[in-house]
Amino acid sequence: MSDTTPMLSATKRERTGxxxxxxxxxxxxxxxxxxxxxxxxxxxxxxMHETMLHLRxxxxxxxxxxxxxxxxxxxxDLGYDYLGNNIIHADFSRVDLNERVDTKAHLTFVxxxxxxxxxxxxxxxxxxxxxxxxxxxxxxxxxxxxxxGMEVGDVLHASDVKLPLDSMVLLTDPDTIIAQIVMKAQxxxxxxxxEVSADAASPEVIGMQYTKTxxxxxxxxxxxxxxxxxxxxxxxSRFNSVTLDANIGCEKCLLMxxxxxxxKSGQSVGEALRFFKLDPLEDLLVIVDDIALxxxxxxxxxxxxxxxxxxxxxxxxxxxxxxxxxxxxxVGEVPKMMNQADWVLSKFMSEETDKLNESIDKATKAVExxxxxxxxxxxxxxxxxxxxxxxxxxxxxxxxxxxxxxSVQDKGMFLVTQAAAAAFGECVEHINHxxxxxxxxxxxxxxxxxxxxxxxxxxxxxxVYILAYFTCPTDMVAHLERDAVISDKIMRLLVTTADHLxxxxxxxxxxRKGLDTEAKLRAEQGAAEETAKSSTVRLGAPVKEEAPASAxxxxxPEASEGDExxxxxx
Length: 570
Hints:
The protein is α+β, with helices and mostly antiparallel strands. The chain contains 15 helices and 23 strands. The strands form 6 sheets. It has a 6-stranded mixed β-barrel. A 4-stranded mixed beta sheet has the order 10-7-9-12, with no helix packed on it. It has a 4-stranded antiparallel beta sheet with strand order 21-22-20-23.
């Protein structure tokens, strides 16, 4: 909730469509649309840097200056790229500052509860936000709830929340429980009286049924850090999390275990970063489970995509990007015929215990290394080259063959949309980026064919086939296939093993120079067509209302790509 309405300057966009929007983003602008109050929608361009500064502060209401015309708007929606990493579009609705709206306010629990000093006591938060009716100018970022006076057995209801302004109206049922202090059913031996040990901040705060599950691998590392670096500290409830102060290396840190659902982890992270005014790239380290890594492995990254992890996706959404470091803890690939949700909520098997403990120990040392030195040094020290699977035995192999130590080679056939192939260089670069994300090494790549499809797919009748031979850790193949599925440039990806081919046979398929040449030719052809069209308009006869068939076909993709400028439903 801000005392003043922040100002954003904007210019009108004369053109729409994804191609033009992409050029805007490359020049440092953010495409957006303004609608509502029975007025026509207006497509605008905002300064990306200025807008992101306000969004990271949690601001939602703005005074928008569109080339001298000022109006008040409310942020309604943000559009992200296909990986969910970067904001590519914004929707704003015109508002009257005297309007009232229904909204949700996050609850931030502050103070050291007296009851938590009792050994074995924990605080539970069944609800993390409440619904309010407020003036548009009084939208709250969060509401602080003082829990310092709570004893064991005390309960706070929604009606006990002190609203910041008298004009705010509580819509949540007043009897809804928002916090309570209870005793753990089983108390660990050896805890000192009057203090809650680091173990008291265990995942039981969220639910005992999830203790020691694969999805809680990050919590296990935080527990290990607490045991080593937060001895004697008292667990506190802040930022929708159980928190502990710790000194790791030369840094004063806040260990956090969110008490929200996994897919709402961004609430806790966002609140803490805004409260302490921290930079995610420099001051945040996320520890997360990863099904793409085997049990016992860890991987440190300076940034990256969510990889299908709902917790990371929500953090990306709240922070407006994925530029923050993380330590990934391997929990094993999802077995065939098993649902992913069931797998990550299952407990580790007894035979995995030793490897799990090894990864927790490595992750704990890695965090200390990152905070004592730097993340690049930690990556060089702790990021191990994942072991390649052994080569499958071929019927023609001799029994004494030593080929078992060779890594498996894979073959991937990418089916690219005709629209994406128009920017052929970007398309090839996109495929290389997918390989890089999957820790794969490309051995050979070429354009296999361009043809009419046997049946229409994703409203496309033609496609370009790109064949690639590569080596990739088997645990990362699922990552590659998943990234291809959600890509807007690739319709299909088929991956098969190619370990029966020799290096010479694979090298014969390599035509990456040919791909570069075709990318240049397509780019030159596109530029020539644009020049020819503009010359025709300048020198030819007046343009008729009915465009030639070729021009209509060329304009059709552009029109279909303009959906991102359509206003969202209010």
